[in-house]
Amino acid sequence: MKSKLNLTFAKIAAVETMIDDNRSLYKALVTDDGDLLYVRPTDDIAARGLSQLAQVVKEHYPNCAPRREISAMEYNEHLQSKERGKHKTAIGRIGKKQLGIADQILLELITRAASMKASDFFLDIWTEKQAFLRFKIYGFTHEIDTFDVDTARRLAVAMWRLSGTTEWNPAETCHCTFTAAVTLEGAAQSSEYRLRAASMIEAGRPGYLIACRLRDPGSVMPLDQAGYTAQQMQDIWMLNQAPGGLSVFSGPTDSGKSTSLTSMVAAMPTNMRKLEIADPVEVYLDHCTHVQLKKEKNSDNFDQIMATTVLVNPDFLLLQEIRDKRTAAAAISMAQQGKQVHSTLHSTTCAGVPSRLHDLGISLNLLGFKDFFCGMVSQNLVPLLCRDCALTQHRDPAEHRRHQQLFESSKLRYINPQGCAHCTRGVKGQTLVAEVYPLLRAGDGAYSLIRQGAFAELAEYMTLEVGVDSKHAMAADKIVEGLIDPIITARRIGYFDPEKTWNRSV
Asked: Are residues 354 and 474 in the same domain?
């Protein structure tokens, strides 16, 4: 008969010590009843170690010391059951001696990712094969290491267990959030990183895809240091001065839109009553109340929170993301009540924002009303070239000549994938390229085009009549200065029209 997963496990020090000291050698557990559960050893050394463990078990359970072989998956499930509830707080909030082996490996992995400025790390697991560890650094994904499948599964179990709210279920799509106190080399004290993990099962074969997003606690900076132009800063502050209405920060994944929005909230007057609704809350700000959605099976508390929001009557509502018709309806309701509502949305351009909002149930007539829709920001992050090793010539001479003609510059620089001691594979960070549509400043002409659904004409109107810079114009300035790679930039924000003059200094 198989042992149940809610077993209590032996507290005999000699047995526990022997197992903990040799967990990398063999995989074994001993129940309170004296059952020795083990995974078949892979070599003679492990077999001998397991035999020694069996002898120690028999000394303490002379009348009952049966052995039972289990699979590696069963072992992980039993191990999870043993340690479930043991670590309800996050990594770093408990002493290192209290951490299990998987927890320690996870903490080291997170510390490594943070030190390399990774925004995400990925575990791609193929049962019976290998698990690959990859870091996303400045928008590029790099293969960092490999794990055995069993260790990778234990890392996944550790992530979900440390969330304190849920368990990793390899048979389902699931997600969790947790925190880790990370001390980087040279730092005087630890920094608390908030992490969001998601897991998906692969179709057709027993594999798992696990992604974990790291939120750097130091990522929130003064908005005037984020990289916007002086005019863009003025237009963004105009959105904050509106008596009410909806403003949207847009961009693809990893564009920094949530960070920019959080920085804007941090700069708002402290006497304003600010409320954030998010899933999850990633950064806690002073003078702002943060409310996190609570997810349960097939439900959450979103509707209850929004009903209560009306009663607590904040001056400013930060709705972390408009992701569906329900959140769009909530944004509409609060904006119509005269509240300042700021949110994020996945859209590649400002002109695409009203179209996306319309798809989510907001009428164009409402979006074309100045007391409701204040403006929008669209942005991307582009790799910043290392000045010490950037290449002055593209490997294809014809491609280099094309870029020289397109940007009318002899200062073009390209990424050096080999990198140097001062960078990460040719990249020294990221820089912002953005466009800001201040609809309040643009006036009736812009609102009329929105009501008509003329979004292409809206982009042309904002550029030619209102005088806003497009993302491409802002990026071109940085390409001409040799700060960013023209090829990588085009991949991030789209094609540069050769019919236009991109060097505005000419």
From this structure: yes
Question: Residue 31 and residue 453: Cα distance in Å, rounded?
Answer: 67
- Choose the final residue of a domain: 195, 215, 235: 215
Cis preceding linkage at 280, omega within 30: yes
Q: How far apart are CA 315 and CA 133, in angstroms?
A: 44
Looking at the structure, tell me whether residues 424 and 327 fall in a common domain: yes
Please give the backbone phi and psi of residue 477, each rounded to the nearest 5 degrees, phi first.
-60, -40
Q: Are 58 and 15 in contact (CB under 8 A)?
A: no
* Residue 98 DSSP label: G
Q: Look at residue 202 and tell me whether its pLDDT is greater than 80.
A: yes
What global pTM score does this model have? 0.74
- What residues have CB less than 8 Å from 68, skipping those under 6 apart? 3, 35, 36, 37, 38
Q: For the residues of 187-253, what is the DSSP string, one character each? A: -SS-EEEEEEEEEEEPSSSSEEEEEEEEE-TT----GGGSS--HHHHHHHHHHHTSSSEEEEEE-ST
Residue 132's beta-bridge partner residues? 124, 146
DSSP, collapsed to helix, strand or coil, labels residue 170 as coil
Distance CA 492, CA 490 (A): 5
Verify that 316 and 430 share a domain, yes or no: yes
What is the residue type of 58? K
- DSSP3 helix / strand / coil % (the chain, rounded to 5): 35, 25, 40
pLDDT tens string 92-118: 333 344 456 788 888 889 999 999 989
Q: Cβ(240)–Cβ(340) under 8 Å?
A: yes
